[in-house]
Write a structure and sequence with these properties.
Number of strands: 13
Mean pLDDT: 94
Shape: globular
Strand content: 15-25%
Distance between the termini: 12 Å
Number of helices: 10
Structural class: alpha+beta
Helix content: 25-40%
Strand order of the largest sheet: 5-4-6-7-1-8-13-12-11
Largest sheet: 9 strands, mixed
Radius of gyration: 20 Å
Low-confidence stretches: none
């Protein structure tokens, strides 16, 4: 059995109220004198109150090209990743030398050697630590990464694995791009890193006591929706990563998510009413409304997702871990509670992870 031993989110020190960011982001994305009515409406309706940025907001105008943005991602991302990783391990009563597998996901920058390779020596991991850098999963990587960590631990009793997500979304904002997708991203996304420590139960006689842990992973499911590759992702060009967010995403969620979730739960003798902890990626207000409609959820079921969105914005792959952290700390469910981690990302794809406390 895989258990979640700790989850910790690290946020940059540059924290801004949403209304403090609207005009500077307009300066970056819109031509001088352009009408800002749409921009202001998007910022007001995004469901975000505050966000943390990798750099002070006044620094973004000075980033000249993708190289400089990516260097900023690497510098700030390594610091945040180290904070998230070492804090989560300490909370689990472990050290970096205890880690057997490190899965590191990011879609907001690229590096070779990858973030995980640079962190291994920096934090004191063993030279034989297994590493898996992941690029391309986007917002779904928090849920998918937990599922793949679970796959590994099923074959490694007593093992310890860490999922680390690093997303500095602000550094992908395209200057001079007044497309709706870019303006939506500028209103919705925040920056942060998160680490989840997972452990596999020991087997055999003489196995020592297990450390205190959070929920257990019961099952996982992945699903690709055919013919939807164009709905979400990046257009990669000279300026870096230009966001693709198709307005059809909420309609797809309403149409197909219910079948996927109910089928998955039914395989375990459950229905949506049995889930007491919804750990749903906060793609944005329209996506959260679509999830609520598709699953016929009570109005308060996705309150943790809305709370996370309001406090830090959409952190891409780190968001579900930020939400799960709340369930392992201040809002810990009663023993026996079922939980579902749910996220969607480029592909278009859905990832489900069934938990039980």
């Amino acid at each position: 059995m895989t258990t979640v031993a700790a989850v910790h989110t690290a946020l940059p020190p540059h924290r801004y109220p949403q209304d403090r960011l609207t005009e500077p982001i307009g300066d970056l994305c819109l031509a001088p004198g352009a009408d800002r009515a749409v921009l202001r409406r998007l910022h007001t309706s995004a469901g975000v109150r505050t966000r943390h940025l990798a750099l002070p907001i006044e620094r973004y105008a000075a980033l000249r090209d993708f190289r400089e943005s990516n260097e900023a991602w690497l510098t700030a991302g390594l610091d945040l990743a180290e904070r998230a990783l070492t804090t989560a391990l300490a909370q689990a009563g472990l050290t970096p030398a205890d880690v057997d597998l490190l899965v590191c996901a990011s879609i907001t920058g690229v590096a070779a050697p990858s973030l995980d390779a640079r962190l291994a020596g920096r934090t004191g991991m063993r030279p034989d630590v297994k590493r898996l850098p992941v690029f391309g999963l986007g917002c779904v990587a928090g849920a998918a990464g937990l599922a793949r960590v679970h796959d590994y631990l099923r074959g490694h009793p007593g093992g310890t694995a860490v999922l680390l997500t690093v997303e500095l979304c602000s550094l992908t904002l395209q200057k001079g791009d007044d497309s709706r997708a870019n303006l939506v991203a500028g209103a919705l996304f925040g920056d942060g890193a998160a680490a989840l420590v997972a452990r596999a139960a020991r087997t055999g006689t003489g196995a020592g006591p297990e450390p205190a842990a959070g929920p257990a992973v019961v099952a996982t499911r992945s699903h690709l929706h055919p013919g939807t590759e164009h709905l979400l992702g990046w257009e990669v060009g000279a300026g870096g990563f230009r966001v693709v967010i198709d307005p059809a995403v909420p309609a797809l969620v309403r149409r197909e998510l219910g079948v996927q979730v109910r089928g998955f739960l039914a395989g375990h003798g459950l229905d949506t009413g049995d889930i007491g902890a919804w750990v749903c990626h906060p793609g944005g207000p329209k996506v959260l409304e679509a999830v609520t409609d598709a699953l016929a959820l009570p109005d308060d079921a996705l309150t943790p997702s809305r709370r996370s969105l309001a406090a830090v914005g959409n952190l891409s792959s780190a968001s579900v871990l930020h939400i799960l952290q709340g369930f392992t700390e201040a809002h810990r469910p009663a023993p026996g509670t079922w939980g579902l981690v749910l996220a969607m990302g480029p592909g278009f794809c859905t990832e489900l992870v069934l938990l039980r406390w």
